[in-house]
Amino acid sequence: MTDWISRLQAVLEPYPWAWTCVAAMALVLAAWAANWLTKRVLLRGVRRLLRATIYRDAENDAAVRMAVIPRLANVVPALVLYAGVDAVPDLPHAFVTVVRALCQAFVVLTVALSIARALDVANREYERRPEARQKPIKGYLQVAKIVVFVVAGISIFATLIGAKFVHVLTGLGAMTAVTMLIFQDTILSFVASVQIGSDGRVRVGDWIEMPGQNADGDVIDIALHTVTVQNWDKTITTIPTKKLITDSFKNWRGMTEAGGRRIKRALYIDQKSVHFLAPEEEQRMRRFRLIEGYWEDKERELGAWNARFGEGADRINTRRLTNLGTFRAYAERYLRNHPAVRQDMTLIVRQLQPGENGIPLEIYCFTNDTRWAIYEGIQSDIFDHLLAIVAEFDLRVFQSSSDAPLTVNLRDGRPHAPDGGEVPLESPSA
């Protein structure tokens, strides 16, 4: 091999640039071969070893593939280039210095990214433990990642400018106070933009609601200093980017991604219209096909309860069906059979605490279409039906004005003459 290299060098001796090119190509080929061997041979062996020990299932194997080891494998070709570039003949000293500095910077960045991914895997493994909900460590790991990237950034900067790490760190410490004072808003906005972009808390097209900033609409632009929101009345609100980190807001993206929009509205039932069902009323309400199974279930439940009092017990001691409970069962079954209501999400028809406006009967469910106009149409159709059919259960919806007719007679009560004139009143002395 040495003799072959010597002969090749002798052949190319009249062409110094050609020998330099051959040596550079050989170095690049060696770096590629080192990268191929590392990823094709070494990594496969490590993955098999991990799958045979602590990483046994597919989910953990995916975590290994995305995490530390493949990222660290990229260090190998960089080290080959760093060590071999000085052996390439006739390369300018400045070029060699730049290449070695770039290799050092790449190694530092790769190690920092590997540490960050290792922290992500550590957090993922920790979250599987029962106590993870009470004692999360994600915040501490995020601080550690920030420290790692800051140190890596300073190290890369020092390497590229040819200075020592300690000198750069000292200089940055002296400049930090002045920089923070002059560029305070820009730095805060930049940090907020990075955090927003990394965790995805706000994206263009999201519907956000932030009452403190008079914002309620779609996000149309995310810039360094401001986030622009087009409200539903077509006005434009600009929110400082840092406010999305320091202040609370509501993002409706989860509703859109879930595919269900919540209905949470109550009917207020007049308390005076609630009563036990008489046999004839019960017989009349059995016509509703939606609650056919309700009667059998209630008869078994109430029969078992009332059997403890024996035959001929006073009705005041027994449990009986009410018109409000029957209507509540009808409303729930109506929603269970409604084609526009999500059956795989929470669906409740419940009573809330009675008040001066009656008994709130709340409808809590989710529609299968999140678009505003269609959602409002579905909600209106549901309450149109319930408001119209509530009278069939002998219930009344409460409203502030009385349901009784009010007749006011403002006519004069004196008799009238046949010709239309008024009959004069008799004097007291007549």
How would you characterize this protein structure?
- The chain has 15 helices and 8 strands.
- With 430 residues, the protein is of the alpha+beta class.
- The strands form 2 sheets. The chain has a 5-stranded antiparallel beta sheet with strand order 4-3-2-1-5, with no helix packed on it. Strands 6-8-7 form a 3-stranded antiparallel beta sheet.
- Strand 7 and strand 8 form a beta hairpin.
- Helix 2 packs antiparallel against helix 5, helix 5 packs antiparallel against helix 6 and helix 6 runs antiparallel to helix 7.
- It is elongated, with a radius of gyration of 40 Å.
- The chain starts with a helix and ends in a 41-residue tail after the last helix.
- The C terminus is likely disordered.
Compressed to H and E, one letter per element, the order equals HHHHHHHHHEEEEHEHEHHHEEH
Distance between the termini: 153 Å
Give the overall form: elongated
> Spatial order of the strands in the main sheet?
4-3-2-1-5
Sheet with most strands: 5 strands, antiparallel
- Count the E strands: 8
Low-confidence stretches: 425-430
In short:
The protein is an alpha+beta fold and 430 residues long. It has helices spanning 2-11, 16-51, 58-66, 68-73, 75-84, 93-126, 138-161, 165-182, 184-199, 243-246, 253-258, 279-285, 292-306, 323-336, 372-389; strands spanning 207-210, 215-222, 226-231, 236-240, 250-251, 261-269, 348-351, 359-367.
